[in-house]
Here is the input.
Amino acid sequence: MSAYPEVSSPETASDGTRYLISDLCLYLESYLPQEQVRDVYRAYLFGAEAHEGQKRMSGEPYIYHPVAVARILAGMRMDHKCLMAAILHDVIEDTETAKEQITEKFDTEIAELVDGVSKLTAINFRSKAEAQAENFRKMMLAMTRDIRVIMIKLADRLHNMRTLGVMRPDKARRIARETLEIYAPIANRLGINSIRLELEDLCMQAYWPWRHRILGDALKRLRGNRREVVGQIEESLAARLKNEHFSAEIYGREKHVYSVYRKMRDKHLPLSELADVFAFRVIVDSVDTCYRVLGVMHNLYKPRPGRFKDYIAIPKANGYQSLHTVLFGPHGIPIEIQIRTTEMHRVAEEGIAAHWQYKVSGDEARTPDAAAEWLRNLLELQKGSGDSQEFLEHVKVDLYPDEVYVFTPRGKIMVLPKGATVIDFAYAVHSDVGNQCVAARVERRLAPLRTELFNGQTVEIITKPDARPNPSWLNFVVTGKARASIRSYLKNLESREAEELGARLLSMELERHERTLDSLTEDEKAGLLQALDCASFDHLLAEIGLGNRMAKLVARTVVGQGPGDAESTPGQQAGSLTITGTEGMVVGFAKCCGPIPGDPVVAVFTSGKGVVVHHRDCRNLGDFRKHGQAWVDVHWSQDVVGEYATSVRVDAGNQRGMLATVASAIAAEGSNIEDVRSEERDGLSSSLRFVIAVKDRTHLARIMRRVKALPTVMRISRVIG
Here is the structure.
């Protein structure tokens, strides 16, 4: 009789595999102490009782699934607490069992692992996408505390994908797509190659069944036809290594269907070109032997230029190490060879799971540096993301790293995704370095911040303490960390600027009622917040600054008057807002009329964006009047700073070099041309429209006089609205 009797009927599961606790425990005895195996069995008894009466969609007892998940993790030789949590991973979510019961029956560590994998079921979400994103965020944050959370989730997803055939086709496709976009890349990011490859293949079977079948059949035919050639190449490699007195394992590496499909799709290549590459793996005993074997391979067959990669000296972001080379084989056949040690091969297949095997022998497992760095990045992404869906978006960006390896001035290697720019590098160094970045040197030469980086470059970031991120950076950064950090900084900056503007607007309105902002008591503020259903006074000021609340109505509430008429027209307000040019993102300047210091101006509120300043003669103001927008009188400060964009039209003779002549005259007066458009009026003259940056009306007048003095210019005028 088995020492580990089954609770459920020991029948074969729907996929033809036996998921029996007795089989699992017998396997565990090969690497775990007896008392730990008994603990795993105790978790099984608890889980089987909790899931009693529950069936999977395939009709088999539900407990088969948790045992199957534990069996996958046992294959990676995970520790006994991870296996116990795997068996219990659905009891919180799918049964009446509470987290506290698991803590009481087992311990806090196992309860935290189970809770990390469990979905949020007690919260009502507005949409399925929001629920998915929030559950993903919960799991990823639990993973940053204990990496085994994601190991259990990956094993759970792998078994679900193996049994996906019982699902409706539309649901199966949705799950396959989610797995391909999120879970397979996570497995890749953690270096768990065995799980990644199987997930990708299963996803392709579910999402593109016909493509998978046709491509799979074609690859089988090709393998059958070239088996003899593969054998000959393998024999020649083995013979040469034996002659050089090297002990090595050599075997052909079969390309997986999805890997072939992705290369065909991404590189626009036919199957014949990809299938002609013969791939082999050489496993040796030491790093030194790897490089010596590489020399032997290059002596046997000529290497193809530009196709050698040293991932031993510079490992991939997921910790993968190996030497890759492509050779010209017999009859010019390309031969792809990977050379690695036994330990590197184990890490390449099992990734971070290989490091957890140390815990089996009693030592404390250590998260590898590459994975630890990613986990730190995840925490920064979480802090910089506004909500769970934004966090999911940032993580997805980080999960597709076609790596680029660049160096700091001190020689430290930084791994970035392909297409990364100088700004991505700055944020990879540190968030503060990114926020204060003003310039950079690539290979000791000054380079624009949007410069794309390539392998081997040395990058130096130049910072200034008073610098801050530019919103335009979001147009070209590619890493999730950079994008989240920039958005977070800008949101906080906008909030602070909105509070300052809101305070000025409310003060202006309170003066009409002979009150000041400083004179408001704490009781008055509390009553105001209650009346307006606002969380805090700073939040109320920010809402006013962003145009979401009217300062006039808030002021009326303060003094106890009714709301009155919410609309107003220019000139009705007693106070006037002073524009200094330092207001930041919550005061914008309309592009339609390009107001500049010295112009008569008026401002309108745009909900969520704050105040937008227009020239009083702007034609678009009529549209705002129709929609009853809220107005505020504004005037320019005597000490206004900055440059402001405005438009001018130049009518000139249609002569060669005319555009350059006008542009040179504008630049000579210290103005920058932001945009120019040419419009030919007839064969003799052209009309040019320039958008230029000026300090004020005086500066604009000097530019217009200088341009008008040019012989080819017939007329110059400002364009408003």
